[in-house]
Write a structure and sequence with these properties.
It comes from Cellulomonas wangsupingiae. By secondary structure, the chain is mainly alpha-helical. Helices cover 75% and strands 0% of the residues.
Length: 277
């Protein structure tokens, strides 16, 4: 029963990855002949300012978006887990962003940032908001963060809700009788008991945000200039449009290793914190 799935996974996933690693040691342009060049592609990556900037932008974006997503998702999940009216309806509404296509939502946000917000900024007399932030090299990345956090929160809320519902209500009742404040109940009961859910959400969020692509395409297309070019976008443009197939494949291999290392380090650190709590 498992063999067909394993075979399909190997043919359509593992084999292309191995082929990519192989071609990263060549000068292959995606067509025609090729020759082995050893580690030249990898060594050239470290002297490329554009690639260095794409890594810096991606890390900056991923860290900010991960923190904001989990803070906001946990706050909303705690609100939805309380005894409120229309609880089921609100849970459904908050999950809607997760089922919407990123590109479609991205173009809607593009219109808001480029047209609606500047009008509001002009009416309020806010200078930096009076023009599209997507055209500002220093602020464009914030628009991408807003879109990414808005959509990613939906999935994280579901996981946090699942964790919150595993906490026995008797613990909160006992804490209330002891006079524990809301913050004390959260710090001593809620967060320690959902720490495993926090760990998986943080790891998945950082991993997904490090691979940001659609959000950038929909909002800025990497601009202004190259201010918001993510690693994925640089790999796509150079590999499929710029004749740098082997070179960007080497970049993709480095990118893969970076994501794996960061994910494992983050997982190990957060799991150690779970044990301590």
């Amino acid at each position: 029963m498992v063999l067909p799935a394993v075979a399909i996974f190997f043919v359509f996933h593992t084999l292309p990855v191995l082929q990519g690693i192989f071609f990263s040691f060549t000068d292959y342009a995606g067509y025609g002949t090729w020759q082995f060049v050893g580690l030249r592609n990898y060594l050239n990556l470290f002297g490329n300012d554009r690639i260095a900037h794409s890594y810096l932008f991606t890390f900056q974006f991923a860290i900010v978006a991960t923190v904001l997503t989990n803070a906001l998702a946990l706050t909303i999940a705690m609100g939805l887990n309380a005894r409120i009216r229309l609880q089921t309806t609100l849970r459904g509404l908050y999950f809607i962003p997760n089922v919407l296509a990123v590109l479609v939502v991205g173009y809607v946000f593009n219109y808001l940032f480029s047209n609606s917000l500047p009008v509001l900024g002009q009416a309020l007399g806010v200078e930096w908001l009076s023009t599209s932030i997507l055209a500002n090299e220093d602020l464009a990345w914030l628009g991408i963060v807003v879109l990414a956090v808005w959509q990613a929160c939906a999935f994280n809320i579901i996981l946090y809700l699942a964790g919150l519902q595993t906490i026995p209500g008797e613990l909160y009742e006992a804490a209330s009788l002891d006079g524990a404040s809301t913050w004390r109940r959260f710090r001593s009961i809620t967060f320690p008991l959902i720490s495993a859910f926090f760990t998986i959400n943080m790891v998945l969020s950082l991993k997904n945000f490090l691979q940001v692509f659609d959000h950038v395409i929909a909002l800025t297309n990497g601009g202004p200039g190259t201010a918001t070019e993510s690693i994925s976008l640089v790999i796509y443009r150079g590999g499929f449009q710029g004749g740098e197939y082997a070179y960007q494949t080497a970049n993709a291999v480095v990118y893969l290793v970076v994501i794996i290392v960061l994910s494992l380090a983050q997982l190990r650190f957060l799991q150690s914190r779970e044990v301590e709590s």
